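Input:
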Amino acid sequence: MALSLPTQCPHTVNPLRRSPKPALLRRLNHRVCVVSAATPLLQVNDLKAKIVESNVEILHGVNLTVNQGEVHAIMGKNGSGKSTFAKVLVGHPDYEVTGGSVVFKGENLLEMEPEERSLAGLFMSFQSPVEIPGVSNDEFLVMAYNARRKKLGLPELGPLECFSYLMEKLQLVNMKPDFLNRNVNEGFSGGERKRNEILQLAVLGADLAILDEIDSGLDVDALRDVANAVNQILTPENSLLMITHYRRILDLLNPTHVHVMDKGKIARTGDLSMVEAIEAEGYETVSSLT
Amino acid sequence: MSLSGTALWPLGLCPLIPCSWSYGRGRGRGRGRCRGSASSDPYVLELAESLEDSLPSSPSPLRNLRMASSEALLSTPWPSRREEPFRFTDLSFIRNSRIHPVSHPYPVTLLTPLSDLPHPLYVGPLSALSSPSLIHQVSQFLSSSAPHHADLFWSINGFAAPDLTLVYVPQGTHLDNPIHLAYHPSHASDTMHLSNPRVLVILEKGARLHIIEDFSANHNHSYWTNAAFEALIGEAAHLTHSYIQSQSLSAAHIKWTSVRQESSSTYQLTEVSTGAKLGRHNLHIQQLGPDTVTDLSTLHLSVGDQTQDLHSTLVLDHPRGYSRQLHKCIVAHSQGQAVFDGNIQVNRYAQQTDAGQLTRSLLLQPRATVNVKPNLQIVAHDVKCSHGAAISDLEENQLLYFQARGIDKNTARRLLIFAFGGEVIDKFPCSSIRDTVRTQITNLLDPSSV
Ligand SMILES: Nc1ncnc2c1ncn2[C@@H]1O[C@H](COP(=O)(O)OP(=O)(O)OP(=O)(O)O)[C@@H](O)[C@H]1O
Ligand SMILES: [Mg+2]
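Output:
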């Protein structure tokens, strides 16, 4: 599948953009997709990774397959390796892969530079997005957007040409236009940072969006905004992998698969019903069940 | 060593160099004017002699300054690395060159059209000034204005400045357009031309001015600019100072900026120095009354085998001063170096002073070096002072953030370097200067983009 990206800015219709739909409809879409096609998008096989600096292995053999159109959730105790897994997938230099394989859209993901992974359609929202003083949000977005257009063989656009496109995306995540002039994440509140990650997802599109605790630190309204935005951004062909500790976002985004990570491995996989067991009995019991 | 300087002693003018020192080498063409006993550095003596030869022969209102400077010059040896102010700054590059002082043409030109300037205001060479009272005022000021830590280079300039660019803004006058001074060094292939441009800014009570000092050069010649800038900021007056140094990477650039601030005045300096093989800025600010505001922002960039050095002193002797100093340096070459010695003195009577100092360095190559010595000396007790120093490479986390959004690492690096420097660049009040400086830095960081 090609990158989900509008081919012209700002006049044409963004293929990603759909009119707002209630979450229920999206759920239906997904069910349909899952049944009709099981094209693998991401295949992670026995992935092992260590921290470069300390040589400590964190991922001890992760196995996970995400097919086109599926919505997955990873839960698990603090420190079990969820964020590390996400960061290894996007190529964070703090970690070194020591074993296993990752195939994304049929290609060896581990051989790609981080920017190539992004351009190939992999997006991750960071659990703690870093501040970039001195670089404004709009400058950053325009640059990232143009990198994507370049990859697609489209002409790059000036900041003015991008303006209405960016405004549209801001509306989608319900952010005030002032956020464009502010420096990337600088002085943003926890919730504003999360929204800003979703804004980037809205601008860039993705075949697979990994959302690392996008719901942490969000108030009820913000969570609804973010979930609505995600539902509008992703078409039934796109996939979603969210990392979370809370049930609320699961109810809004309705995952088809729920995994529990424990000590650097996927310890258990089930569906939404497993979340109830986790909430009732805790991770210890759930991950030890086989 | 060879100093050129063959001009004959002008008849009818008595020598400025007092005849109280010994001339150790006994050069055959000694002109018999200097036979004495005080010991000094023969190199400096020879340099002094060639400086004197280079001066115009007409009498000048700078005479008092020359007299005062000659004494200091002759008693000061060439600085060695054993002395604290030059511990990290190697001057041998100058010393090993054949120095040729040049006083003509005077290297400062005014880019602001004079027709735009309101009347009693004066901008121009001191030699063309006709008001006897102002000449007198300037002459008085000059002979007594040497900053506390004045060094050999201050004296060289005071002794050898052929003229002085005076900017005089009378009481209550506000200048809307900036005064833009451009410096053009002269050069030759076999010698290192030394020029000594000097600027004096006098702002009377309540006056307001933005001055731009632009030392640029787009060629790669070897020369030595030894500049001095003095400002006297009157009560409640406001001076904004933009200083851009992008001279040749084969040049030496030594600069003094000495500022005196009367009560309730404001001095705001923004500096970006990217040029010269050896760049040294001595910045001295003296508070003359209470309630002053001092805001210093400087960015030094070494992209080659270069040293960029800022030595600053801010002396607060009166109550309720407010000062902020931000110094940033980027060293992007394994043989590049940055030096910062920033001294802030909050003395006994400077109660309720609010002084902040921050220095941040970015080292982009494994062997790049930086020597920073921020220091606050606080004697007054009721003050609010803060300082900090940080040295780092670019943040991996930040680079990854760009990459994770599809922006390649080189572009990300360049952007982050700009973002680091941008904090200073953004303080230039003129957008045209901000743009020029950004372009310069882009070209320096990525020569292929030129
Ligand atoms: N760069 C790093 N340096 C040092 N330790 C690290 C690093 N990255 C991860 N770790 C350690 O690896 C373990 C897994 O961390 P990770 O962030 O992946 O946990 P997590 O499952 O995302 O936890 P949480 O639910 O709290 O977000 C933790 O013990 C963490 O301290
Ligand atoms: Mg985490």
